[in-house]
């Protein structure tokens, strides 16, 4: 798809649900493709851990190992990271800091509204805000949004999931980011156009390949 459409790019990486599939040799085949702009999504997810205590600890250990390996891979190829964090904010933050992920930076995909992660703005990380911002039960994200530095804000979809209101329940589409932008504009008390320009410029700073796009 990236080769067919000029405006489509891709990232290569292993999601924490798929750690048993991690193979750096396969990633090596794609990372130097001119349309590969990031490593991920990778990270930690403690939401669906095994119930057995030994299996749980083994899974967490392997998740951390694969996450760290992908951070080092990103640094080797000088690609930003797309980070997945679910119920693992403390460990994720510590690993990103300890392994100097700021060297390449990245985006916290579907930012989970953890105030504990705001420190990562100082470590070259951006905060991906999607359809959840428009949900009625997104009080925590609504409250924390103004605390995120404006030069670290991004808008994203997580398509086909997390479709913003008023289309919640439908398949998500890139076009629906206008509803996220509108809500962000309302909460930050700036115009829609300012939000769109701000987040577009932030994306171009993070993903250098976007800098030439209009």
UniProtKB/TrEMBL annotation:
The keyword Hydrolase applies. A divalent metal cation 2 binds at residues 84, 109. Coiled coil: none annotated. Pfam families: TatD_DNase (PF01026). Gene3D superfamilies: Metal-dependent hydrolases. It comes from the Bacteria. Signal peptide: none annotated. Transmembrane segments: none annotated. GO terms for cellular component: cytosol. SUPFAM superfamilies: Metallo-dependent hydrolases. A divalent metal cation 1 binds at residues 41, 158. InterPro entries: Metal_Hydrolase, TatD-like, TatD/YcfH-like. GO terms for molecular function: DNA nuclease activity; hydrolase activity, acting on ester bonds; metal ion binding. Keywords: Hydrolase, Metal-binding. Belongs to the metallo-dependent hydrolases superfamily. TatD-type hydrolase family. NCBIfam families: YchF/TatD family DNA exonuclease (TIGR00010). This is TatD-related deoxyribonuclease.
